[in-house]
UniProtKB/TrEMBL annotation:
The gene is map. A divalent metal cation 1 binds at D129, D140, E268. It comes from Parabacteroides gordonii MS-1 = DSM 23371. The lineage of its organism: Bacteria, Pseudomonadati, Bacteroidota, Bacteroidia, Bacteroidales. The keyword Hydrolase applies. The keyword Protease applies. A divalent metal cation 2 binds at D140, H203, E236, E268. This is Methionine aminopeptidase. It is an enzyme of class 3 (hydrolase). Monomer.
Length: 283
């Protein structure tokens, strides 16, 4: 089956070196991005400004988060900081999501909905996932927080999940492949006795909340879409203590939970691919 012809020549314009390289790889049968996935410097700067606000929110959460705090209080911190900086919380009302941030505790993998009834306790681990729209540009990042003294098993999970993000970053090279990221993440997670969630992934971001490509955190090297300078995307491995299988809570249709209800951890950054590797736009 023939692949889609993603890289279109602009009529009346001479071929650039980038055009020639991408067309060569496309003709070899590789999956290449469409032109709309290659951001201009103006667009990248807009995404960077959004990312500054996004990272500032997570810095604030890091200062304030503690045992006895409700996840609704985290949501208020996020909403107030975002709007005070002239931005919009991207999750709020996105496809019906009712809050400004995702707060995912222990066995909740992602998309946890903040609540007054959900109180952080000593020994919990929590992922706070923040996404911001500023002047029409989107950014996305999450961090793990350990509440008080956590078990050695949870501490290792949080640490290895961050290492998985870091090895995924190192594997992402200009004119490499999305599959290189997943291969590196999976190898590191499994070496440490953990599993990688397969039903959720990283994604392109910037002009929309979710764009191509899908960035799986498992897989084979040399597969998936070509990583071209100018592409903006997230890497956000979800690492489980037990099985990689997950389910969605029926009562809200959002909360993703590990199938065996063992803990999960996740870290996420937004990146732009440059000629010499990744640049972080939000962490």
């Amino acid at each position: 089956m023939r692949r889609r012809n993603n890289w279109q020549i602009i009529k009346g314009q001479p071929l650039t070196e980038l055009d020639k390289k991408i067309l060569y790889l496309q003709n070899k049968g590789h999956l290449v991005p469409s032109r709309k996935l290659i951001k201009t410097e103006e667009q990248i700067e807009g995404i960077r400004r959004s990312g500054v606000v996004n990272s500032g929110i997570l810095d604030l959460v890091a200062k304030e988060i503690k045992a006895g705090m409700s996840t609704a209080a985290i949501d208020k911190l996020v909403y107030d900081y975002t709007t005070d900086h002239g931005a919009i919380p991207a999750p709020l009302n996105f496809e019906g999501f009712p809050k400004s941030v995702c707060t995912s505790i222990n066995e909740v993998v992602c998309h946890g909905i903040p609540s007054e009834k959900e109180i952080l306790r000593e020994g919990d681990i929590i992922n706070v996932d923040v996404s911001t729209i500023l002047d029409g540009y989107f950014s996305d990042a999450s961090r793990m927080f350990m509440i008080g003294n956590v078990s050695p098993e949870k501490e290792k999970l949080v640490r290895v999940a961050k290492e998985c993000l870091e090895v995924g970053m190192k594997a992402a090279k200009p004119f490499g492949y999305v599959g290189d990221i997943g291969h590196a993440v999976q190898k590191h997670a499994e070496k440490n006795g953990f599993s990688v969630v397969r039903d959720l992934c990283g994604h392109g971001v910037g002009l929309e909340f979710h764009e191509e490509p899908e960035v799986a955190h498992f897989g084979r090297k040399g597969t998936g879409m070509l990583l071209v300078p100018g592409m903006v995307f997230t890497i956000e491995p979800m690492i489980n203590m037990g099985t990689y299988r997950v389910y969605i809570a029926e009562e809200d249709g959002w909360t993703v939970i590990t199938d065996d209800e063992l803990p999960s951890a996740q870290w996420e950054h937004t990146f732009v691919m440059r000629e010499d590797g990744l640049e972080i736009l939000s962490d």
